[in-house]
Amino acid sequence: MITRRSFVALPMIALALGLPQNGAAQAIRNGSAEPTTPAKVEAPKTPQNAAEAGLGQAVDTNRYVIGPEDILMINVWREPDFSRPVIVRPDGKISMPLINDIQAAGLTPATLSQKLTEALSEFINKPEISVSVNQINSQKFFIAGNVARTGQFPLAVPTRIAEALSAAGGFKDFADTKHIIIIRGDKRIDFNWNDYIKGKHLEQNVFLQTGDTILVK
Q1: What is the dihedral of CA 204, 207, 209, 211, to 10 degrees?
Q2: Kind and range of the H or E element at 51?
Q3: Within 13 Å of residue 181, how many CA atoms lie on the same side as its CB?
Q4: Is 37 part of a structural domain of the chain?
Q5: The CATH number of the domain where 156 resides is what?
Q6: Which of these three, 79, 114, 135, is where a domain ends?
Q7: Domain that holds residue 178
Q8: pLDDT digits (tens, 9 = 90+) for 17-72
Q9: Distance CA 154, CA 55 (A)
Q10: Whole-model pTM above 0.90?
Q11: Do residues 207 and 160 lie in contact, with contact meaning Cβ atoms separated by under 8 Å?
Q12: What whole-number distance in Å separates Cα of residue 160 and Cα of residue 212?
């Protein structure tokens, strides 16, 4: 039997079951009330690769040199209070609990891991530490002009001009691929893509330096 108290609670039951409130009493009397199926929500799309996410190439922890504004991830095994992302300050240092400031810029992630291990050994018994680079902000080059992808690219590993142009996703229509210019401060470096793919003048395919801009007219 449905009492007066039951009718008072019907709107709340209707909300819980996802039913219209004016049909709640009839549904409960008939025993036919069923929870509504939630609408399907698609998960946000994630990039399929590092280049698509703007992260560039994987960082070699034994070769990459950390610089100011890089974002690092410090992982100390079984020590969550010490595991955290850190930003390299303009002075080249990072801050960590107990050991305060420690120099990071100019070191590889592997070397910094060793220094952190030595410093934390005074407070933690045999710490196991790994350092990875979450985001490269200190070393980068730029591509502008008639290519599919323009903008800033991380210089995570030694990269030649041809590799950088390939990372840009190809040339647009009417791009002048014979007269590509690399701007390096007040210096200009010419690069002929057409010659390069024919195996000619391969010496022009030099390594990029941080701050270089590749201009495709």
Answers
A1: 60
A2: helix 50-53
A3: 10
A4: no
A5: 3.10.560.10
A6: 135
A7: 140-216
A8: 444 444 444 444 444 444 444 433 333 333 333 333 333 457 888 889 999 999 99
A9: 7
A10: no
A11: yes
A12: 11
